[in-house]
Amino acid sequence: MLISIAIDFRHADVATRERFHLSEERLTQLYRSARTDVVTESALIATCNRTELYAWIDADDPVAVERAVQRLARRWMRTRADGAELLQTATRREGIEAARHVVRIASGLESQVLGDGQILGQLKAAYKRASRGDAAGPVLHRLFETALRAGKRVQTETSLTAGRNSVGAEAAITAAQRFGNLANARCVIVGAGKTGARAAKQLRKLGARDLVIVNRSPERAEELAAFVQGRAASWESRHVEAAMGDVVIVATGSETPVITAPALQRAREACASSGYALLLMDLSLPRNIDPAVTADPAIALVDLDTLHQPLLDAEVLRRDAVPLAEGICESETQAFMAWLATAPARDAIRPLREALEDVARREVAFHAKDAHVAERAASRIVAKLLAGPMAALRRTLQRGEPLDAHAMMLFEMFAPTAESPARDLRAAASTATHRTPT
User: Fold this and answer.
1) Residue-range definition of the domain harbouring residue 393
2) Out of 54, 77, 119, 193, which residue is the most buried by the measure of CB atoms under 10 Å away?
């Protein structure tokens, strides 16, 4: 049975999410200790908005599943009491609901900002961590591959992630639209916080090459400047840098203007840039650029009110795309559940497949004298031979009939007699047909 235990922004505030957050070290420990005979796979998604554990429990008995869930919670929180509190706070999902949820996460439908384009990369990173830790197995591999595929489809087939959902990014795009080619423009970003950083990164993407980062903390300025391949300047030089710039984006947390009209005018006169066009963009609240700067006719000032409408337009565009995105997610979820439902048929036929591939591989290798050619040819030959029997086993499952008799008949008909005795294959098939995923 597929299960998930989730702490997310919809049901838990920041303080609560912090309490249940797992560090990289603790996540490694969880992966090492979570696996048992019943809990065979696990993977955890951890972002600032959610911490969610997905696991495959090789049982469908409610008592066994509940014991496994409680054990996972204890491994997550280290103590029984904390594990119990986790389960009281968390949202639990099973089966198709757990699968549907992770697919929707990958598609940006469950993000705090609808259509968040960053979540797909975060999900991919979580999947890689689980794979590196040998925590994910065939079921979770398939689940996360399904989710990532759904997320990519939503990005390419819908407008859910279209438009901008960041004031910083919107400011950069507006600057490019108003100024034109940014390759020859000097762009100054005052403030290296989240908004300023997004503006700087977007400017870089749009072709800006001369980027200047100004911040009260020089370390933050230098870090961002290195990331966007620009240069850092001191806080005291902000008016001079602004006077020498073509585009200036200001995003600080100051309660008073950090760019004042008199200081900017003196700097422009000293730098002999008076009369040159200057685009100032104020992304702060309260405003951080003195509105009096517009007394200079060469200066254009853009504020949050100007940027608000494009953001609203983008939000409407994304909301209109929700039904189509949800349809993609449901289609991918149903495909995953169909794959899961046929697992007993694959398990039943696996011993026979392996035996036949072994024979085919050796026969092809004998004639081809090439192990790689033999490997590929053997897999293709056996896949074609077993396509019909596999379809028959699927139909048997759909009718609700046991697989035992059909699997045994296949082994009697196809099993090699020398290298892989039929009785050994029959025993393997009998074991496989009694392991039915939920």
Assistant:
1) 342-433
2) 54
